[in-house]
Amino acid sequence: MVYNPGERVLGTTTPLYALLMAALGSLSGGPEAPFPILAVIISALFDGLTCLLLMRLAETLESPWAGRAAALIWAAAPMSVTFAIGGMETSFLVLLMVATLYFHSSHRHILAAATASLSILARPDALLFVGPLGLDRLYRGMRRQRNSPSLAEALAFLLPLLAWAMVGTSCYGNPIPHSILAKVSAYRLPPVAGMVRMLQHFATPFFEDLAVGPRWVALGIILYPALHLVGWRRTLRHKSSVWPLALYPLLYLVVFSAANPLIFRWYLTPPLPMYLLGIFLGLDYLGRDLHAPLIPRICLAAALGLTLNAWTLHPDHGLDRPAPEMAFIRLELAYEQAAADLRPLLRPDDVLAAGDIGALGYYTQARILDTVGLISPESIDYYPLPESFYTINYAIPPALITDRQPDYLVMLEVYGREGLLRDPVFNEMYRLRRVYPSDIYGSVGMLVFERAKPEE
Length: 456
What we know:
The chain is of the alpha/beta class. The protein has helices spanning 15-26, 35-60, 64-76, 78-85, 90-105, 109-122, 127-142, 151-172, 178-186, 193-203, 208-212, 216-238, 243-259, 272-289, 294-309, 330-342, 358-364, 398-404, 424-429; strands spanning 311-312, 323-324, 351-354, 367-370, 408-412, 430-436, 446-451.
């Protein structure tokens, strides 16, 4: 399972999802399998199961209404739909996470251990909810409480991880995805960028800013965490073992703020189901305390209206069908067009360099030099770059291109504006072949370069 044939690099941070897609592909056409369609179908299935499990989970917490409310919002939430139709692993990860928390809450600990283990293989940040669950189980075992951990539970958790450790080490020399190191090395961010992005997200779980404006953030960052804490505090009084469910969204916020990675939008999704459930638990309890059952219902209607307001009936690009506004694919469509134009020109041994490799690699089937380093370990040696090279949070190292000399380079202009495009060696070695209109990330076009041959 590699990106470039013969290069044993684990470039995916979701090996379990990649294996799942490969298995489905082998049953539906092999290399010619319709992977984009398969991904959408299984993501829809996963999200449907997640909604069902949210309702079942809330029943164990003695608040069925909160579960139905969270499931309803999750079904329409742009943060769930966007990455489901985008074919990513997000729906799979969230399903495993919610299943683990449901099994834990209903005292089916062997199943919880198994799904917790699989969730780590779906994406490493699953450790942020698996860790507290493990601490709870260890504590209860030390206190010899009822439902203490068993050998079967430990094996259910350890065996999938050990199996992957052996396979990953045998195939790649290391079972930890190489892409984690690459993302840490390549991107440059202000010190508090991660915290600001996370706070904005937690303040607007229903995309209130689209209707009210950014001033809502100041209110939302107080209102929603307060409701979350009220809901879970009341729940913990009669079911103390579910404290990891309450902690997970807040722990996620703190860890990602402190680590300060580049916050891709799909990083914002995992804590949302438990955060939504906490908010609706809080509303449910407030409605009961005030003897005003209409209050939580009115709030749910408002939340659904705000969530649907983040959709558009007729997107201005791509397919003409309702979709979340955040589900824009202009960048992917531009790369797809560049790939279609390049593919007839590519020879079997040609190397194509790019910073965004997904669509280019898929549609050209060329050997890729990943300038970020997700699948190309050699790229990491060229970071960090001088601060002056950055216009945004990423820039292509000039020396990487001039040293490795790929046959073609496709990039957004902003990736090379202050560095690569000013490098005299690069400008001597490469000629601009084509410019595609694009203002993404403030670019002046998408650029396609070809290495000049000696006779040129």
